UniProtKB/TrEMBL annotation:
It is an enzyme of class 3 (hydrolase). It comes from Microbacterium yannicii. It is found in: Cytoplasm. InterPro entries: RNaseH-like_sf (IPR012337), YqgF (IPR005227), YqgF/RNaseH-like_dom (IPR006641), YqgF/RNaseH-like_dom_sf (IPR037027). This is Putative pre-16S rRNA nuclease.
Amino acid sequence: MSGFRRGRRLGIDVGKARVGVATCDPDGLLATPVETVPRNDDSVARITALAEEYSAVELLVGLPMNLRGEDTASTQDARDFAAALAAASALPVRLVDERLSTVSAHAALRSSGRSQRSSRSIVDQVAAVVLLQQALDVEKSTGRPPGTPVPQEPA
């Protein structure tokens, strides 16, 4: 674990209607769901408040790409949301590939016996857990921070 930076992170799965938030322990062993934040004008403020509450050292925002690694309709939305977070928070914000996190989240919920309808309220949190866990695993195996940093714009 030589290259792993200690500290809690928040994993953020940006959706059109909801934003899933997950966190991890300071050693990055386990990602756990935190909250589903309604997507509105208060979303960024709520997430920065959660980051403070959990003493996060970094925000990891999922970047939805298609399976070929190309941008999708949601990619720019996630980039814009990450930029708004970077502007609102003093914490580093990184965009991480979350190609299969929502698919994995739905599959995990289905295999646990939940219907698509009953899963709607938590699927975003589960997707955030999946993307955060993937990012933690990448950092541990490569010794490098996952994804790409979002520039901190001066406010």
